[in-house]
Design a protein that fits this description.
Elements: H1 2-17, E1 36-43, H2 54-60, E2 69-73, H3 81-87, E3 93-95, E4 101-105, H4 112-121, E5 126-127, E6 149-150, E7 157-158, H5 161-165, H6 168-177, E8 187-191, E9 209-210, E10 214-216, E11 219-221, H7 237-246, E12 264-268, E13 271-272, E14 276-277, H8 281-293, E15 298-301, H9 317-328, E16 332-336, E17 355-360, E18 382-385, E19 404-407, E20 415-418, H10 421-438, H11 444-453, E21 456-458, E22 461-463, H12 466-477, E23 484-494, E24 497-508, E25 514-522, E26 525-535, E27 540-550, E28 559-560
Parallel strand pairs: 1-28, 8-12, 8-15, 9-12, 15-16, 16-17, 17-18
Antiparallel strand pairs: 1-25, 2-4, 2-5, 3-4, 6-7, 10-11, 13-14, 19-20, 21-22, 23-24, 23-26, 26-27
Length: 563
């Protein structure tokens, strides 16, 4: 604010001393040129969409739309007035169920846009019936309905049918419809490390750290800066978790990830010498603390320890303290519930600060291997497809053609099928990362709430539903907190230069989602209006732009913002 006032005073001094020798910004009116004002509302996220100008309405008709009809709002309510009813006389109307819209058939020989113009002139709210296409169908062969992916040693081509079951595509499309990119936040994967040479993880990994650089008597010792997963033996566990969350998506190869290629922080807490072993309270606690310190907003733990048969796993005090610190830092922590059905939820999944994720098999019931809570333990927070394994057979712990298609190390063939709650948990972590990227103002508790409230209830529990979680997050984000002060800056730009700028400050009333503005002194011409709102409680910044053609004083020019 001080810089702005100082600039204004400097400008006043220059005018008082004579003309400036600097260039005049494009659009600056010459003395004697008539100027006009533009006013309206800046719409905060959740306030609804800005109404279209006449020019924007006209541009709609250049988009693909259903020929031979227009959409009329409230055409059957009896509130159209005599002129509206008259212009619709003889027009075939068909109500659209579940909406306040009707489809009006364009009279023979009349252009759709011209017909709409005639209806609009009579005071009707009309628009084209635009044609939409799927917005986010990845071209990766592993995505459902694409070509399928070969897996070494397997007879068929496989796909990621689990993405269909958790409604990932519908969730991505909902984000697109909200004008939000499929962005995500930094997600830490505490596991066996990650194969950095895997092409599906190129550009997706932070440097990370290894808290188990050597094994001594099968326990972790030492640290270094290389969290790479070894390529010998049947490992690939950490690479699998990272791939489900953040594999490069829509790149024409491999698999699609929940975040379309987010950023993973690999944190190696296991030793791998051809098998997985060695993780300790020390290595896991250090890994948790490191992930929080590096700014991870989601942590995936496809690991845990079981209690004795029939007894719940007890809390690890060191890990419990680290999880409490992560919760205090507003981090979403997700853990696999475990792969034995009779030993209760593994720890740390059973911790109250963690989302415990079980696995469903080929159907909507729990897979035979998935952990179930014992008496005194919390319920599973969510379940997700984890592969069928031997569910429905006499041997639960076998592989199946209905397991999860995922990544493995390059040395093991890049792609494989896996089963376990270890494959279910990263789906939830990926969805959490997607929510935090799209709705950054939500707290970790609100993200957990959105994931669980948006889930689909079935026999196996609350099944992850990406679309439902996004809808819940949208609702939570649209509920404004109280006592929010704002600082709004509105600018009019022309030719890349700022022609007019004004700052507005105040406090939002409860449920207020709009802020009025007025810009004065604009000469006739085309401008781009920009709005930048800085809000408190919680702190966030939203921005929006809108083009406008000025030829007189304009009102009702609303600017839609987004995070």
């Amino acid at each position: 604010m001080q810089k702005l006032i100082g600039s204004a005073l400097l400008g006043a001094l220059l005018v008082g001393c004579g003309p400036s020798t600097g260039p005049t910004p494009p659009g600056t009116p010459n003395p004697g040129t008539p100027t006009f004002s533009v006013s309206g509302q800046v719409l905060l996220p959740g306030a609804g969409a800005a109404s279209l100008t006449a020019a924007e309405q006209e541009a709609l008709w250049a988009l693909p739309h259903v020929p031979g009809e227009v959409l009329v709002r409230d055409a059957g309510t009896g509130e159209l007035g005599a002129q509206g009813l008259s212009v619709l006389s003889g027009v075939t109307l068909q109500a659209v169920p579940g909406t306040d819209l009707s489809r009006a058939a364009t009279p023979a020989g009349e252009d759709d846009a011209a017909f709409a113009g005639r209806l609009a002139a009579a005071g009707l709210d009309v628009q084209p019936n635009l044609i939409y296409r799927p917005l986010a169908v990845p071209n990766d062969p592993g995505f459902p309905d694409n070509a399928g992916l070969a897996v070494p040693g397997r007879p068929y081509l496989y796909d990621q049918d689990y993405l269909t079951r958790i409604r990932a595509l519908e969730g991505w499309n909902r984000l697109e419809a909200l004008g939000k990119p499929k962005s995500s936040v930094l997600t830490a994967v505490l596991d066996t490390g990650v194969d950095r040479s895997h092409p599906e993880l190129a550009g997706r990994l932070r440097p990370g750290r290894d808290f188990c650089s050597r094994l001594v008597n099968d326990t972790c010792q030492g640290t270094d800066d290389d969290p790479a997963e070894v390529t010998a033996g049947d490992v690939g566990h950490g690479t699998s978790s990272a791939g489900i969350i953040a594999a490069n998506t829509n790149n024409g190869q491999g698999i699609a990830a929940l975040t379309w290629g987010g950023t993973v922080l690999p944190v190696k807490v296991f030793g791998t010498d051809g098998r997985i072993s060695g993780a300790t309270s020390a290595s896991l606690t250090a890994g948790l603390n490191y992930a929080v310190a590096q700014g991870a907003r989601v942590i995936n733990l496809s690991l845990g320890f079981a209690g004795e048969v029939g007894r719940p796993a007890q809390a690890d005090p060191a890990i419990r303290s680290a999880l409490q610190a992560a919760a205090g830092a507003d981090v979403v922590v997700v853990a696999a519930a475990g792969n034995t059905p009779d030993q209760g939820l593994y720890y740390p999944a059973s911790d109250p600060n963690v989302l415990a994720v079980g696995a469903i098999g080929r159907g909507d019931s729990l897979a035979c291997y998935s952990a179930r809570p014992l008496a005194g333990q919390k319920a599973l927070d969510l379940v997700a497809p984890g592969g069928n394994a031997g569910t429905g057979t006499g041997n639960c712990y076998v592989t199946s053609d209905y397991d999860i298609l995922t990544l493995t190390t390059v040395a093991l063939g890049r792609y494989t099928l896996r089963a376990g709650t270890s494959e279910a948990a990263p789906q939830v972590s990926g969805a959490a990362s997607l929510l935090r990227g799209a709705f950054p103002a939500l707290t970790a508790a609100q993200v957990r709430q959105a994931l669980t409230a948006g889930a689909r209830q079935a026999e196996g529990g609350r099944i992850l539903n990406v679309e439902g979680a996004i809808a819940q997050a949208e609702r939570l984000a649209a509920t404004p907190p109280t006592n929010r002060t704002y600082n709004l800056v509105v600018e009019a730009r022309r030719g890349g230069s700022v022609v007019a700028r004004k700052t507005f400050t105040g406090t939002l009333a409860t449920n207020q989602r709009t802020i009025p503005y007025t810009l004065n002194g604009l000469a006739a011409g085309s401008y781009t209006l920009t709005a930048r709102v800085t809000l408190t409680n919680p702190g966030e910044t939203v921005t929006g732009t809108r083009g406008v053609q000025v030829s007189g004083n304009l009102s009702g020019v609303n600017i839609q913002t987004q995070r």
